[in-house]
Amino acid sequence: MKRLLMLICAALTLGISAYAADETEIYIDGTLLECPSAPVNADGRVLVPMRAIFEALGAEVSWDAQGRTVWAARGDEFIGLGIDNDVMSVGVHNSFGEAVWVDSVTLDVPAQIINDYTYIPIRAVSETLGARVSWDAANNAVIIDSRSDISGTVYYASDSDYQRLYSVGINGKNRKKLSDRSVYGLEMYGGSVYYLSADESFLYRADNESGEECVIAAAVNTLGTDADGWLYYQELDGAARESGAVFRLNLDSGETERLTAASVRYPLLYGDYIYFNIDGSNNMFAVTTDGAASYEISIGDTSTVKLYTFNCRFFGGYILVENGVWYGSIVRMNLDGSGVVTLNQTNFVIFENQTQYDKIFYLNPSDGQDIYCINIDGTDEHLVVKGDSSWIDIDVVAQWGNMIYYKNPMRSEVYRVNADGSENEYVCYADTVKVVDGRLFSSYQGLYTGSLDAHDMVNIYAGGVKDFEVIGDTVYLTAENSSRLFTADFYGNSSAVTMDSVGEWVCDIE
Fold it and tell me: Is 135 exposed, middle or buried (0-12, 13-18, 19+ CB in 10 A)?
């Protein structure tokens, strides 16, 4: 986005010398914005009378003469701009009516009074209200897309309101509170969001039309849903709520089935199986998702190898495990525990962030942090990268086909290498790296995207990024300092989805 902003700034700066200030026009969704006083250019930024732009984007405006502050409100969301102040404040009112300040946006040009009108910077205000802004140099016009025709809903736990459940359009409009409960464990199915209440762990669901409904009035731990509409969950027992039987619920019919006879620990849904542990046993157990068959899974001496759902790697059609306390030889078995095979005879640690396909990447932590690869059938074990012992540790952070991206967790330098060891090269400086549909995404003091070798990375969001997810041709990201949710496309156009801080969130794209 930085590159795009520089181009727009240059265009705006050129427009100052080529056009009179009153020749600049503002278009919102193709309609000319009527202003009581003409837009002006100030230091390469377009400013407009406050009331015109705020009301056009659905906000109510007020003026605090004593504090010399412009206030705009849209429901429980609000914006404050002080005259001659280069900071715009953003916040929401919580369920108790308290004003919660969420974010401070630094402006290139402050709000100011010109010819008795209060002028505000159009780009910062528009993007905060969910719109996207571009510059039409040929016509000396600012083009605003209010995104009113963008469909889809984001459901989220608002950290600005004690994790209560809200919904908002992907375009940042129509924010609505759906639950007075603090919630977690959000998951979408059939146009509704399912979630757990923080105080009692009951299962609820809600949507914009039907409101909130209790689905299971018992303390549960949800494991996930499948394509057939079954939700798998553990009904927790005891004061500690650390164990319980596993059930499944058909979200369409309401039918419930019990899948384990006894209370279990650490249940995990993977494919057509639910894996779990039982007190007093060092083996792992599994039951098919329809409850038709169950299995006890072991790879030998249980005093040496203790199988838990959290120390196994579920990899395509196999389970992988290191047969040692901390690391060991890699053992492969089928998902039902049969066909146990030791793939190698050296101490290794399997990388977690790798694509599940026909190769396994793993680390030799005792010999210079070397990266190795082996085929899933146990053939072609070979060195990929001769590591540097000074790195202390190496993580695989992303993968695309036979190519992996790796870095030292203590440093931000990202490298890539093919499975055969070729093309081992530095890629970029990043906190987080993801590869989606053949595009590289990286975050470090901003969010960038480009080709797999990072030679053409474009800055698509200028601020710090806490986390991001790529869905189709849109990136959803939470800002580092405020935890507000934004969207960005691959060309540097970004806009806000929320004015409040977001915890968990899920998206229902129409």
Answer: buried
List for the chain the helix, strand, coil content (%; round to 5): 10, 50, 40
Q: What is the DSSP letter of 469?
A: E
CB contact set of 204 (below 8 Å; sequence gap of 6+): 179, 181, 183, 194, 195, 196, 197, 212, 213, 214, 215
Q: How far apart are CA 136 and CA 477, in angstroms?
A: 27
Q: Are 276 and 268 in contact (CB under 8 A)?
A: yes
pLDDT digit string, tens, across residues 382-410: 999 998 777 778 889 999 999 999 998 78
On whether the CB atoms of residues 237 and 263 are closer than 8 A, the answer is: yes
* Integer Rg of the chain from CA: 27
pLDDT tens-digit series, residues 342-351? 998 777 888 9
Count of Cβ atoms closer than 10 Å to residue 455 Cβ: 10
Q: Who's near 408: CB < 8 A, 6+ residues apart?
A: 391, 392, 393, 394, 395
CA of 485: how far to CAs of 104, 148, 494, 501, in Å? 14, 18, 11, 7
Q: Are the C-beta atoms of residues 230 and 212 closer than 8 Å to each other? A: no
Bridge partners, 155 (sequence order) = 167, 506
What pTM does this model have? 0.90
What are 413-416's contacts with CB under 8 Å, separation 24+? 414/442, 416/452, 416/453
**C-alpha 225: how far from chain center:** 19
Beta bridge partners of 134: 143
